[in-house]
Amino acid sequence: MPSASNPSQHDLLHTLYSEHYGWLHAWLRKKLSCPHSAADLAQDTFFRLLSVPFELSVLKTPRAYLTTTATRLVIDEVRRRKVEQAYMDALALLQEDAHAVSPEQHLQTVETLTLIAQMLENLPEKARQAFMLSRLDNLTYPEIAAQLGVSSSMIKQYIARAMVHCYQIVYAEEPTA
Fold this sequence. Notes:
Shape: elongated
Largest sheet: none
Order of helices and strands: HHHHHHH
Number of domains: 2
Strand content: under 5%
Number of strands: 0
Number of helices: 7
Structural class: mainly alpha
């Protein structure tokens, strides 16, 4: 059992939550103009702290840390919503003649597209554009080259770079035989 002079990680998180939740919720409510989203993101911020790899006792500026964590969660949420909206727009075009998509299929597709967007995030802009135009718009290399103002051989290099990048992300943690 932890002593009073050496509080556990759980005790530190409880204290941090008690002292700063109200402030963080108010800060997010002001930023987001939505009390419900602010409450969700404030909870998510503290939930994220459950998995921090360091001792909370070394946290010298908790509000700065909470603000940074919450801001990153807001950015992730905005990115997810953009991907979801793009999917919904594309789905609306296809739905005119097709059957309805179940909520489970919708969620799985949005999660997959979000993962793909995150995977492509660190690629150079033209490589990302070339990959997306090839895979999502089914454009040929010459069509992509004309659109991006580069040669077809450069498009091959961009797409190869994107595929290697994705492969490395997907298989980076798998053990080698």
